Amino acid sequence: MHTPPKQKPENMQERVENLSATKGRFPVKAIIIVVAIILIVGVAFFISMRILKSRTPNTPEPPAVNSLMPEPAELQPTVAPTPVVVPEPVKIPEPVVEIDTDKDGLNDSTENTLGTNPNNPDTDGDGLQDREEVEVYKTDPLVADSDGDGYLDGAEVKGGYNPLGEGKLFEIPTTE
After folding, report:
1. Is residue 16 part of a domain?
2. Which of 43, 106, 107, 152 could form a disulfide with 98 if both were Cys (CB 3.0 to 4.6 A apart)?
């Protein structure tokens, strides 16, 4: 049986009649397609979840740490206490203060050893201080005229002469 092709309705009345004629049919095919799509999506979701769960390693959650509670004694490391070493105090000797009462450059203990007067900078009164006689000119600080020539040691030095003998204190070498 062959049905002739339907013609387009020409007026509005015919269109309304065609619509009411198809109203009684239930679109079963459309519902079956929608249900099939929903079913396929659901099965795909279920399978993908199973696959993902099988690939994810099961790691345990770390235990909660309460910072206010100390660790149990068996978990705390045992460290021997470091002994406290108190060093002996360093004994610093008292500085020996060399006193020079007469301010001549020789301290009083040296003057006592030499036999000079620690209260007089020029014990023999020759015009040279005791330190100059001992350390510079090497004359005797207890004798005013060390070379015995009749001139005081201080006067000879002042004149440029040697207080220990003949000649000048500073001889300039001559070239011949």
Report:
1. no
2. 107
What is the C-alpha to C-alpha distance for residues 72 and 83, in angstroms, rounded to an integer?
25
> Residue 127 domain-assigned?
yes
Q: What is the Cα–Cα distance from 12 to 18, expressed in whole angstroms?
A: 10
Give the count of domains, the chain: 2
Tell me if 91 is assigned to some domain: no
Q: Which domain holds residue 112?
A: 108-159
Cα–Cα distances (Å) from 62 to 55, 59, 65, 68, 74, in that order, read 21, 9, 9, 17, 19
With respect to residue 147, please indicate whether it lies within any of the assigned structural domains: yes
Tokens of 109: 């203990």
**Whole-number mean pLDDT of the chain?**
81
CA distances from 154 to 117, 120, 138, 140 (A): 18, 16, 13, 12
Res. 172: pLDDT tops 70: no
